[in-house]
Amino acid sequence: MFGQEFAASAPDWANLPGDLLTSVADMVHSVRDRIRMTAVCRSWQTSLVDQKLNFPPCLLLTKTGDKCCFYDISGEEILVELDLPEIRGRRCWGSPFGWLVTWGPDLEIQLFNPLSKATRPLPSLRPLNPYLLEKPTLSSSPDDSDFDCIVLAIYSEHCSLAFAKPGDQAWTPIEDIKGVDDAIYFKGSIYACQSTGEILSYQDLRGTLSKAVVFPPLSPTPEEKSI
């Protein structure tokens, strides 16, 4: 009898109103506590899926099974452990925005948020014959509605460069250029460094094929001229 009365009077935490839950989450500044809130139940995870979280720079370390742990570099401690079967067998790259770029044996690539479990599909890389995906880079968070998230990809054994947005039907190759060692997105332009040491800037990403602007080489210093 007592058990039935207690069960009837116990609060139904799973059915808290979403706006109330997000208001509480806004006042929680601990990363650990925010992560724990999303793990309470599915309804809480759904309500908090769009909540932004200032996650410190972490290393993603795999453990046994599907468990992964996030190692806080600044705090020098394991911040949280999560079960992530969604990335099993997939290669992962991190980003400054809390999202992972994952690439599977099927050559399909997608964005994945390990906290909310949200995903953003990207076009297949198959048409580009990508036997090697060297490095993907994000321009902004896929959650940020003020900016279009652009994903850069250095791919193939020739280290070519292409870009796409979540929801695009295909990747856009950036000219017939090879030997890209690194690339970043900065203030609306792509900057790429070639293995030859040249720095290229791609400033128009709205066209079907962007043109490169090659920076002139630096003038030699007096010491270099005397050699």
TrEMBL record:
It comes from the Eukaryota. This is KIB1-4 beta-propeller domain-containing protein. InterPro entries: F-box_BR-signaling (IPR050942), KIB1-4_b-propeller (IPR005174). Residues 70-210 form the KIB1-4 beta-propeller domain. PANTHER family: F-BOX PROTEIN SKIP23-LIKE, OS07G0183000 PROTEIN-RELATED.
